[in-house]
Amino acid sequence: MHDLLSSFGLSSSGDHLVRSPIDGSEIGRVRFDGPAEIERKIAASAEAFKAWRDVPAPKRGELVRLFGEELRANKDALGRLVTVENGKILQEGLGEVQEMIDICDFAVGLSRQLYGLTIASERPGHRMMETWHPAGPVAVISAFNFPVAVWSWNAALALVCGDSVIWKPSKKVPLAALATQVLFERAAARFGGAPAALSQVALCTRAAGELLTRDGRIPVVSATGSTAMGKQIGPIVAARFGRSILELGGNNAMIVCPSAKLELAERAILFAAVGTAGQRCTSLRRLFVHDAVHDELLTRLKALYSKLVIGDPLTKGTLVGPLIDRAAFETMERALAEARKDGGMVSGGGRVLEKVHPEAWYARPAIVEMTKQTAIVREETFAPILYVMRWRDFDAVLAEHNAVPQGLSSCIFTRDLQEAEKFLAVSGSDCGIANVNIGPSGAEIGGAFGGEKETGGGRESGSDCWKAYMRRQTATVNFSDALPLAQGIEFGV
Ligand code: UN1
Asked: Is 281 a catalytic site residue?
């Protein structure tokens, strides 16, 4: 671990202890910013913005290109650090860094495509156009489960859009954020002439972090985390007419139809329900299986689950690493107890490896057969619990699918065109992401990522999400010798 941190030039100092969920051991110490330091960082960010907004966008893209190069060169080290600090398996740690590289590439292209419209004016000798200007300092609040990738979706776009960035990472995973900052600074040094404080990390408590959400100098706050967190942040930002991009809880489902190719469905289920130990916002939590294939699929799933290797996420072959902490394990146990009370039949669950690692929280992923979608199924439990329910009527299962407060990701496995299209139609899935013959997790960066209802409505990453990091200006230019008023109004003395 020491070598890993020193490869980023990071030393361990401060009073906040960072532990690895792999074995509970101390892996570093960091210092938290107090309110005065947060204030200084906001002021510095506002200054940096003033300089950065005037740099031509394609030139700003060059900085992001260099940052992408640093990420490529350090993919292995950063991926490892993510694994050690968060507990996701190395394949997924590396995948997370790849996601950062991908969004950098996307943003570099975007830096030459911040297009506005021209609009036909109703007045003769007039031209109307739309220009996208940088918005200002952007605060990015990220969660423990994606310690670095979700920040990069925001930062890569914000930087090419001409904004400065302040990042408040989860206090459970500060080291990966600090390492990322080192890579950013290396890129900035190679770029030459980027303003100081263009991108900063602010490790702090929630109370100090609130200064970011309350501050009128920060027009955009992008926050990823629980719905409870979003319910606090959203109104604070709205009260000062700031813009928030919220990516909150999901309760993602899959509908398996009679025509589904079960080998594909089971692979997708395994990755989505068990991957990242069920701690993705896109994790599969609810599985609706048609009566005709229910028993067969369930038997196959139970066989797969019995072969899962749970343990050290750095070891090849491990599929399930630890949960982030004790609280996560206890939440999982409580949910399973609740499901049992509701008549659920639980296979799996419970703690493993507690003798080897008394300070770590490894759980066996659970399959829970439910006869109906009770209150606990409607809740997002951030753990590897898969609730399985049987269906017969397509319209009824669609209604059940949508009958949860969250609306992030969803999918259907079918080879029936009508079912697939109904799922994607207006009366189908109500989620921000809807897939056919693909699981709900592991989205590519090219699309807009986010969801509806209690998921918060924000969209990040690809498509035209960049617009959220800019302000739109409508300009009308009169090049005629007259001053006609719009709507044909006559006004004058
Ligand atoms: C998250 O869990 O907050 O689609 C993000 C996915 C990843 C991102 C997840 N690309 O699962």
From this structure: yes
